[in-house]
Design a protein that fits this description.
It is a single chain. This protein has a single domain (about 40-280), classed as Rossmann fold, CATH 3.40.50. The chain contains nine helices and 14 strands. With about 290 residues, the chain is an alpha/beta fold. Helices cover about 40% and strands about 20% of the residues.
Length: about 290
């Protein structure tokens, strides 16, 4: 039997075996604290956010309110409820455009409000860690892909979806954009490992997959699996407003491996195969 889970979400979800679903908002600090206390929560994995860099261009103040103040409420609720460990989801968007290897010590240079909000949330977590003695760490999660995502604008999923439905997928630029892809299942594994680790040595950790593809290479994989796919992507990098706010290729994840045994093994090509199979099933198509 697995570990019982309590979810806290602004969208109502039904309970499932082993999962208690609570409908609530992060702005309601009193409710959040009460839920943590009443359900005997031991660790918190904080993923709630406006999670799309694209959306932050249209809604900058809402992005800051949700991602910064929402995180502040999670941290304060965790402090009040005596939570053992908080795992805060950050993003590789905090790095902006980088060349060469990117480690946790690389200088952040966010290009969009989303990245700014995630960096601010990281800094809040570090303050709660140092001043309030809250055991909290942040995961700088890279380009997440795979079944079940609710994040709009993820290019790999969009091109697969279009190909399966017989629609064209076109971008004027982006074929050379590096995608440090990390499968959604590996991200979940990283979060659980971080939550269960006995101790950690640093406040932030990179979370990426085993290797990086360009968007053009990912498109070639999709074309090879779905020969009728009509995918056209021009050369160059993605525009800023189309997830071009982060441009990192060589992401160092050795710290996560050292401190909580995060070693992703799913190659992005295999992950794309699984993604295609999942979306085929979702559309009621034969394998």
């Amino acid at each position: 039997m697995g570990i019982p889970v309590v979810t806290f979400d602004r969208d109502p979800w039904p309970d499932e075996p082993g999962v208690t679903a609570i409908h609530g908002e992060l702005v309601d600090l009193a409710q959040l604290t009460r839920v943590l206390d009443e359900h005997g929560v031991d660790a918190v994995i904080h993923t709630a956010a406006i999670s799309s860099p694209d959306m932050s261009f249209a809604m900058p103040t809402a992005t800051l309110a949700a991602n910064v103040m929402g995180t502040a409420n999670v941290l304060e609720a965790a402090r009040g409820a005596g939570i053992r460990r908080v795992v805060n989801f950050s993003s590789s968007s905090i790095y902006g455009w980088q060349t060469g290897p990117v480690g946790e010590g690389s200088i952040p240079a966010p290009k969009a409000t989303y990245g700014v909000s995630k960096l601010a949330a990281e800094n809040l977590a570090t303050v709660f860690r140092s001043i309030h003695d809250l055991d909290v760490l942040s995961l700088r999660v890279c380009w997440v892909y795979g079944p079940g995502l609710r994040v709009p604008g993820e290019h790999v999923g969009q091109m697969i979806w279009a190909a399966l439905k017989g629609e064209a997928y076109r971008l004027e630029a982006g074929a050379d954009h590096p995608l440090p892809l990390v499968f959604v299942g590996d991200v979940a594994e990283a979060a659980i490992l971080a939550a269960q680790a006995k101790s950690v040595s640093q406040p932030v950790y990179n979370v990426a997959g085993p290797r990086t593809l360009t968007l053009g290479q990912a498109a070639e994989v999709v074309r090879s699996r779905i020969p009728e796919a009509e995918i056209e992507i021009g050369p160059g990098f993605l525009p800023l407003e189309r997830l071009g706010d982060h441009r990192v290729a060589d992401v160092d994840i050795s710290s996560a491996g050292r401190d909580f045994n995060y070693f992703p093994v799913l190659d992005p090509v295999d992950g794309i195969d699984g993604y295609i199979a999942s979306l085929r099933e979702q559309l009621g198509m034969t394998p």
